[in-house]
């Protein structure tokens, strides 16, 4: 490696900020242009990042998926209550794909299993 080349490193937070800036811009963020509170500079950096992200309204991808899955489970359940013989297999298959995607990104205690026609109402209980 020559002196001009910089070593590659993984900057996840920087990449997320760049992507957000390109798609949504950073001017709309609450508190833009104001100094950060002093408490953000003391203690654990990761915890402070989480607090700042939460204050800014950031939701992790897995949490967005969790809300979508909950809403889809409710929708399928309501359809089956009205017409139990309705064909919902394709919707359940798409729902299970979302559940697998959720499980790839969520914290380990939040992992959940896939659903079937017979387990929709049980699954609704643990996705709420």
From TrEMBL:
Location of the DnaJ homologue subfamily C member 28 conserved domain: 26-74
UniProt cross-references to InterPro entries, sorted A to Z: DnaJ_homolog_subfam-C_membr-28
Record-linked Pfam families: DJC28_CD
Organism domain of life: Bacteria
Protein name: DnaJ family domain-containing protein
């Amino acid at each position: 490696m020559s002196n001009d080349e910089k070593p590659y490193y993984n900057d996840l937070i920087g990449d997320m900020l760049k992507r957000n800036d390109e798609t949504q811009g950073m001017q709309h963020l609450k508190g833009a242009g104001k100094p950060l509170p002093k408490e953000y500079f003391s203690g654990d950096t990761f915890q402070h990042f989480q607090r700042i992200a939460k204050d800014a309204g950031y939701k992790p991808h897995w949490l967005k998926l969790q809300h979508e899955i909950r809403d889809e489970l409710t929708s399928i359940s309501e359809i089956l209550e009205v017409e139990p013989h309705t064909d919902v297999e394709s919707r359940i298959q798409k729902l299970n794909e979302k559940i697998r995607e959720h499980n790839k990104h969520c914290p380990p205690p939040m992992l959940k299993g896939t659903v079937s026609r017979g387990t929709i109402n049980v699954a609704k209980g643990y996705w709420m």
